[in-house]
Amino acid sequence: MVRLYLPNDTSSRAAGAARLAEAWQERTGIELIRTSARGAFSLEPMVERDMPEGRMAWFNVTPDDLPQILAGRGGTPVNEIPFLRGQTRVTFANFGVTQPLSLDEYRAHGGLKGLEAARSQSPEAIIEEIRISRLRGRGGAAFPVWHKWQVARETEADRRYVVANADEGDAGTYCDRMVMEGEPFRLIEGMLICARAIGADTGYIYCRQEYPAAAHTLRAAIQKAEEADLLQSHGHRLRLEVVVGAGSYVVGEETALLESLEGRRGVVQARPPYPAEAGLYGKPTIVSNVLTFATVSTILARGGEWYSSMGTERSRGTVVLQIGGRVKQPGLVEIPFGATLAEVLERFGGGMAPGSHLKAVQVGGPLGSLFPVSKLGIQICYDAFAKAGAILGHGGIVVFDHETDMVELARHYTVFTAEESCGKCTPCRVGSLRSREILERIQAGRGTADDLALLADLGETMKTASLCAFGGRAPYPVLTAIEHFGEEFRRLTK
Amino acid sequence: MDGKSAVSLEVVLDRCRHGPGQQPNILQTLLAVQEALGHVPLNMVGEIARGLEVTEADVAGVLSYYPDLRTHLTGRHLIRICMGESCVANHCSRILRELRDQLRVDVGETTPGNRFTLEKVYCVGNCAVSPTVIIDDDLYGRMIPSQVASLLDQYR
Questions:
Q1: What is the pTM assigned to this prediction?
Q2: pLDDT tens-place string over residues A256-301
Q3: Which of A117, A258, A434, B135 is 20 to 30 A away from residue A124, measured at CA?
Q4: Fold of B77-153
Q5: Which residues contact B90 (CB under 8 A, 6 or more apart)?
């Protein structure tokens, strides 16, 4: 019996893993182990097996490749795959190795060590460890994690909640999906540590409906954690539940997410009070991104000092980037903060897809700024991006090629923001729609130079007067498109 | 309203009335209704509101806010084309054009005979294997326009 490893992650399945599993299910002599994915998606479907020289991988496998794999011919040692070799895998260290729903394998690969460490410490000591790590929220806002926890702990209340924001709406990002599908116990462990630190007895994972496999895997993992008696917080049982949403990008904003969790319209609320003081049902609530919780367990296991030794002065630890668009090697990259965007695209992206030339790069989801080729020297850390008026967001990097029509792309962004604006504040609700109309006027050949000035003016109003980051960031992709590719816009105006 | 849906609604409301929070959870109730009936008929808003002891405006407000809550049934198969930026960068507009040509409907419409409804979605996290088309529960990545026709043939 030859044991073969095949990822069961959504993107691996879409790349052909599902077809392989189906084709090989009747084959005798092989045992298919369905694992998480390594994130080297250009090589998927990727099949691995243990050989005397270590784990070997076969890339872009078709059903007919089985004899070759069984004969052990033509494989590549996993630790020699260039895309993976240059990475510093911390949160994603076990990806591609373990089975998502095996608690034993999770434990065997270092899982639950953070929780054990946390349980031997006081809540104050846990928060201190997170402070030392200098971890900042990975959802996009980059707020110091320890500070939120401290506020929630110190706010007088009879109940506290811990909520995982699994509404990974930023297009071009998928690391949360990979955590939930690939190592769900890691998220659960991080939430348990947080619950102990702040004194919460209930946790929710708000998962977007576009991720059915993630919700399914999480529910199964919660069941297993329950059976293993893991769901405990300061001596009580921690109730942990997956709640699935119903679309809506803005629900990823924390106050809108809590509104949605309570079953109302997912509309943004003015802050303060911040959720850490008054969140779900008015109680202190920690709302953190999936990746933030997934990082916490390793910090507790290996120490805040160790984590903060990586990265740049004010961006400590590793950054999880997700490369997509027209590159040769799209996939998940975890490296310390500090490399430049150009280095990342070259070292990991592997250049452009055949026949394509790089035109623009967007970082940080649909509200992120566009970078032309001349601006790719920017360092990947919070400070450099803030200084450039850009955002790292949730780590999405989308590469556009020479065939991209920048006016149409700008219009695409305004269609998105006009549809997804929650409608609570006027600058965003009206501004996004007017921006769309102006761009459509320009596309129809009826625009003037004044329209471009109007678009810029409208953008400034939205930046300064919107209630939340959605309206505040919505103009950036449009305005950076005009800034760097203005000729394409001017060509269409009178 | 036929007898079957009336019974289902009662069961759903009964299950949702004692939700996890202090107040009735309107969104989860509507999702449960949609799960049972395939959509949330507008003429049920009153009944749902009374069942949850909230106003009709509360229910209608939630129903109109969320893109995935439907007030009409879809065709037998729901096609969603991803319009996230990685798909856009990989020229999903060409896939969309092919879908429109093949189906002769636009986004948001259902083909005559109720075979397909075409919708768009903003990112399903399949960015590294884009562009993406989802039909019912099946997700297809690395789509090229010439694959569209044979893909549609698999769904009658």
A1: 0.96
A2: 999 999 999 999 999 999 999 999 999 999 999 999 999 999 999 9
A3: A258
A4: Glutaredoxin (3.40.30)
A5: A325, A326, B130, B131
Judge if A459 and A376 occupy the same domain.
no
**Claim to verify: residue A294 and residue A218 sit in the same structural domain:** yes
Return the structure tokens found at A179.
């955590």
**Spatial separation of the C-alpha atoms in residues A167 and A178, rounded to whole Å:** 13
Question: Does residue A172 fall inside a structural domain?
Answer: yes
Res A470: pLDDT: 95
For residue A429, the enclosing domain spans: 406-490
**What residues 94-153 of chain B have any CB closer than 8 A to a CB of chain A?**
121-130, 132, 137, 139-142
Whether residue A259 contacts residue A269, with contact meaning beta carbons closer than 8 Å, is answered with yes
- Encoded tokens for A346: 């070259």
Does residue A169 form part of some domain?
Answer: yes
Is A94 within a domain? no
Residue A97 counted as domain residue: no
CA distance A320 to A306: 18
Give the pLDDT confidence of A140-194 residue by residue, as tens digits: 999 999 999 999 999 999 999 999 999 999 999 999 999 999 999 999 999 999 9
Question: Do the Cβ atoms of B124 and A172 come within 8 Å?
Answer: no
Q: What is the dihedral of CA A154, A290, A263, B38, to 10 degrees?
A: -170
Cβ neighbours of B130 in A, within 8 Å? 324-325, 330
Quick one: pLDDT at residue B1?
A: 41
Taking residues A364-377, what's their average pLDDT? 97
Q: What is the mean pLDDT of residues A242-251?
A: 96
Domain boundaries, chain B: 3-65, 77-153
